[in-house]
């Protein structure tokens, strides 16, 4: 079956749901990534230290865990579509508000509150897409939604570069933040065109009396705790490796004498590689299964990373290998959303996905600090390679320890209905 046949076979509502989730995730990625390109300008404008701007980035990332958890609970209680719109409006509002900040403290508060929305959008959108399509198309549909991250990432590079180089420093970073108002338009589209998940509606209707309401403790109940723990560790491993690569590669390129223009082009090439990787991984997951695909892509990612770290660098090698780093280390996330969606029943699906993805992501970000500390004694390239080996090893072990239900979304809910949960 062709890679895009799933889209051709989708009905009108499924296509509208796809584009809503895709755009939401792309613009979430755009708003999240844009901050890293504004750091030099903001630091110069307000004479901030690296510690101060680092705190803004860290706090915003940490609160995504709380945002994903809360949004998941709300989506399991009140519906995916309503909470998807709410999370998009939330991170849009506080992103635009950040552009009006008059001092460091105001910017810190705005970015922290914006982080709550970042965490919620992924889990709700991924669950909505997974429930909107048939089981045979879930891998490709959710995987293609994930590819929106690459588009948002590339967009942030282009927009930030153009505005920072053409506008006065005191205004450039503000205007970049204000471009984040675009996601509000997506909410209008969702409100008019996207229907609630049929699986969610049916599950609520059939189980009003028998199923508990999602809460902060739902994912820790005996029947779900194994999935919660190991899926969180899986995400932690994948995100730790991803952060170690993406955050430190620009510094590594500096050490090896590559020009600023080469770094920008390399990031764009990585984004293109990530987009291709999302497509490939989504298709591969249908052929080999999500579990096998995640394991295989983890191994490939580590091999590519080691080659990238150890080989002698020049402009052309950097660009070529940059494509494959994006293809493997980022593209592999296409299989993650569908995999996580099958680990939890409908009535706590977004709660479980939101907790696992965002808690794992928040703790995984600590790899940035870990690589920096290790690099003082081993060097940056060796440290990244060793850290990625450990992270991908953790991810692989976690995958092997996860008990995966049958590959049919509705069977998960039926399983718990039969047990009287």
Quick structural gist:
The protein has 421 residues and is mostly helical. It has helices at 5-8, 12-46, 50-78, 80-98, 104-132, 138-146, 148-166, 169-178, 183-193, 198-206, 225-255, 260-288, 290-310, 315-330, 336-341, 349-364, 367-378, 380-401, 409-418.
Task: Tell me about this structure.
- The structure is a single chain.
- This protein is an all-alpha fold and 421 residues long.
- It has two domains: 1-198, Growth Hormone, Chain: A; 216-421, Up-down Bundle (Growth Hormone, Chain: A), CATH 1.20.1250.
- The chain is 80% helix and 0% strand.
- The protein is built from 19 helices and no strands.
- The longest helix is centred in the N-terminal third of the chain and has 35 residues, at 12-46.
- The radius of gyration is 21 Å and the shape is globular.
- The two termini are 38 Å apart.
Topology:
Layout: H1 5-8, H2 12-46, H3 50-78, H4 80-98, H5 104-132, H6 138-146, H7 148-166, H8 169-178, H9 183-193, H10 198-206, H11 225-255, H12 260-288, H13 290-310, H14 315-330, H15 336-341, H16 349-364, H17 367-378, H18 380-401, H19 409-418
Give descriptors for this structure.
globular, 2 domains, Growth Hormone, Chain: A, 421 residues, mainly alpha
Describe the biggest sheet? none
Low-confidence stretches: 407-421
Shape: globular
Number of domains: 2
What is the CA–CA distance across the termini? 38 Å
Give the tally of β-strands.
0
Give me the strand/helix succession.
Answer: HHHHHHHHHHHHHHHHHHH
Indicate the radius of gyration in whole angstroms.
21 Å
CATH-defined fold name of the largest domain: Growth Hormone, Chain: A
| Portion of residues within helices | over 70%
The helix-and-strand class reads: mainly alpha
Total number of helical segments?
19
CATH superfamily of the largest domain: MFS general substrate transporter like domains
Quote the beta fraction: under 5%
**CATH-level-2 architecture of the largest domain:** Up-down Bundle
Q: What would CATH call the class of the largest domain?
A: Mainly Alpha
Mean pLDDT: 83
Transmembrane segments: 21-47, 53-71, 83-102, 108-130, 142-165, 171-190, 229-249, 264-285, 292-311, 317-340, 352-374, 380-402
Protein name: MFS transporter
Membrane topology: Multi-pass membrane protein
Pfam families: MFS_1 (PF07690)
